[in-house]
Amino acid sequence: MSDTPVYLSYPCLKGREIDYVTECLKSEWVSTSGAYVTRFEQAIADYVGAPGAVACVNGTAALHICLLLAGVKAGDEVLVPTLTFIAAVNAVRYVNAEPVFMDCDDYLNLDVAKVEQFLAEECGPAAQGVIHKRTGRPIRAVIAVHVFGSLCELDRLMAVAERHRLVVIEDATEALGSRMRRGAWAGRHAGMVGDFGCYSFNGNKIITCGGGGMIVARSAQALARAKYLTTQAKDDPLHYVHHEVGYNYRLTALQAAMGLAQLEQLPGFIQRKRAQYLEYKARLAAIPGLRLLDVPDYGESNHWLHSLVIEEARYGLGRDLLRQKFAAARIETRPIWTLNHTQRPYRHNRAYRIEKAPFYFDRVLNIPSSAGLTDEEFERVMEVLRRR
Questions:
Q1: Which residues contact 216 (CB under 8 A, 6 or more apart)?
Q2: Distance CA 20, CA 264 (A)
Q3: How far is Cα 208 from Cα 11, in angstroms, rounded to an integer?
Q4: What is the pLDDT of residues 149-189, one digit of tens each?
Q5: How many of the other CB atoms lie within 10 Å of CB of 26?
Q6: Which domains are assigned to the chain?
Q7: Which of 30, 76, 242, 283 could crosslink 97 through cysteines, CB 3.0-4.6 Å?
Q8: Could you tell me the pTM of the whole model?
């Protein structure tokens, strides 16, 4: 076996990336006004079935703008999962609102049943929605993160949000290409069920620009507002008149050129990742104490990351010792994020019945999931897992 590193999720740059970036360079329109930005926005909109899309500098910026579009204001509260990358929580603080932490379900996504319970037990009706009785603050929105590409229980969440007049923001930064399989929203892409959605094109995502993000919505008016806010809120671009505070959040044309080439390959990436998922699942069935985390049957996952669930008593090793074995074999793995309600900036915020998230935090390890993962790399992963 080779001793070259095997990475968790590396980009697969085997399409027309060089051609498009070279064309962009030759045009000399390499900044935010280049034609490739418009082309990339339109291509994403066409792919997910949106009336338009707004490119921005990264997925965190996209979340920030979505919260502004949702009308979240200083002193409001937003329901967020504790088990997610901290960007979704930090964006709430960018608008001077406060997060309220929710537990995860058995797919690592927002536990919608507990959201319902929280709203019933700790909240009451208000003139414009719902109020948190403990704090007296209005709850304005909920952020649903599609963790590792698996979809949240969106049918149920949308019904809950409608009853309580909550805005739903889909953090689909890990879920481009995932879609609903059944229910009222069958066929809809991740990001296109809630009021607003966003994607990330960071270097480890299923497609990449090296960075970058995208905002989508079902409302063309909201998208126009997003474009305005992400381009410094220019009311008169000739004389640089600004009636509001805006943000320098636009994507560059060079990045968009790369993203467009990546998007052309996305169906193939998803197909390869789905095949990996099924092969991992079949091979792990022969190893007691290990299993691949299931994906919900109501959605089609893009299988961005494959999550190994470790039962230490049966397997003989826990998460950390197994991670060390992988590291010794020069194979990159990753535990899931430290739970956000335990992070120093957020320990004072309300965390409602967090029970499953600590269980999975202790037992889940993400294993190599790249679209370009070779057969040899796959076998190296399996060899480590077989040798206890």
A1: 44, 45, 48, 50, 52, 53, 54, 191, 192, 196, 197, 198, 199, 223
A2: 12
A3: 7
A4: 999 999 999 999 999 999 999 999 999 999 999 999 999 99
A5: 9
A6: 17-263 (3.40.640.10), 265-386 (3.90.1150.10)
A7: 76
A8: 0.96
